[in-house]
Amino acid sequence: MSTFPLGRWRVRRSGYGAMQLDGPFASGGPADPAAAAGVLRAAVAAGVDHIDTAQYYGAVNSLIREALYPYPDNLVIVSKVAVRGDAAGPESGESRQLRAGIMDNLRSLRVGQLAAVNLRLPGDGRVDARFDDQLAALVAARDEGLIAGVGLSNVSHRQLRHATAGTDIVCVQNLFHLADRGASPVLQECLSRGIAFVPFCPLGWPRGEANPVLRNRVVIQTAARLGASPAQVALQWLLQHAPNVLLIPGTASMAHLRDNLAAENVTLDDEALRDLDGIGITQPGP
Ligand SMILES: NC(=O)c1ccc[n+]([C@@H]2O[C@H](COP(=O)([O-])OP(=O)(O)OC[C@H]3O[C@@H](n4cnc5c(N)ncnc54)[C@H](OP(=O)(O)O)[C@@H]3O)[C@@H](O)[C@H]2O)c1
Q1: Ramachandran bin of 282, using left for φ above 0, alpha for ψ from -120 to 50, beta for the remaining angles
Q2: Which of 18, 71, 80, 157 could form a disulfide with 120 if both were Cys (CB 3.0 to 4.6 A apart)?
Q3: C-alpha distances in angstroms, 192 versus 12, 15, 178, 180, 219?
Q4: Where are any strands of DSSP class E within the chain?
Q5: pLDDT of residue 25
Q6: How far apart are CA 190 and CA 244, in angstroms?
Q7: Which atom of ligand 1 is nearest to 249's Cα?
């Protein structure tokens, strides 16, 4: 089983993203709270020691607490906070909003400190006073002992370089999957600095029929040839892509949880790697 450091912890590279437990896109509430608790307990029983969550994922933090509290000593729960609404600037209370978001997570998860909290950015990529102020709010929370590590999510390469020049960053969570490698410079920057890179939507975005990963012909054919599932091929490709990748596939299904954890045991041969690597660089036809 392969592991990588996430701040002062060393976690298994196959973790779990809890967002799906509140229904698709964390909206609407869990269809079956007992089944959701069962998925969380099964994940931890299978050795998952890294769970991604957020206070704004509806009932998810409550589900985690009810299913897993008191938490195993080695369980690393990572959450995220974001500025909501139109408020902008240091005078607007954004720092207070972020600190309040951290406090809400601590309360709902019933912990005194979180292993890491990601500052979830809007995606404009700007390095400006607003970014500095938001980052400073998380650094202050770390200084206060509310969080052990500061993470960044939806961060641009420029923002990451700026942030790491001023403080320690323990993890980065950006969109990245077989068919969208736009975050490659960010991933490489993380790798060179020993920062965990946690791809969100590792099974592709958008979902459903248009899913560019799970519905991709190359992924499906490769999976069939290797006796694996398309999801396992997509996840193993990420694991092989870089040693600092930590997986957090999201599922509300026990069968998919097992499928995703078993991706660790899938071997991608040279032919598979060549074919899969080609997906991201295929240019649209005329
Ligand atoms: N930082 C951010 O802005 C951000 C944004 C999005 C997500 N996240 C985090 O990242 C985690 C992962 O992202 P995600 O959940 O959005 O996307 P994902 O893990 O790429 O995909 C989840 C979707 O794939 C399905 N699925 C899971 N395992 C499967 C399998 N083995 N075979 C077929 N389908 C499978 C799930 O449905 P079933 O429930 O039916 O399995 C669900 O519809 C989230 O849980 C959340 O914690 C963070």
Answers
A1: beta
A2: 80
A3: 20, 22, 21, 21, 29
A4: 3-6, 9-12, 16-17, 50-52, 76-81, 116-120, 150-153, 171-175, 196-200
A5: 75
A6: 8
A7: 19
Q: Which of 16, 56, 57, 69 is catalytic?
A: 57
Enter the pTM of the model.
Answer: 0.96
Instruction: State which residues of the chain have pLDDT below 50.
Output: 91, 282-286
Does residue 43 line the site of ligand 1, with CB under 6 A? no
Helix-helix angle 94-109:129-143, to 10 degrees: 40
Q: Does domain 3-277 bear CATH number 3.20.20.100? A: yes
C-beta separation of 246 from 13 below 8 A: yes
Mutation test residue for ligand 1: of 16, 19, 77, the one with most atoms within 8 Å of CB: 19
For residues 5, 7, 11 and 14, what is the CA-based torsion angle, rounded to 10 degrees?
-90
Q: How far is the CA of 167 from the centre of ligand 1 (A)?
A: 30
Annotation says 71 is catalytic = no
CA distance 275 to 286: 21
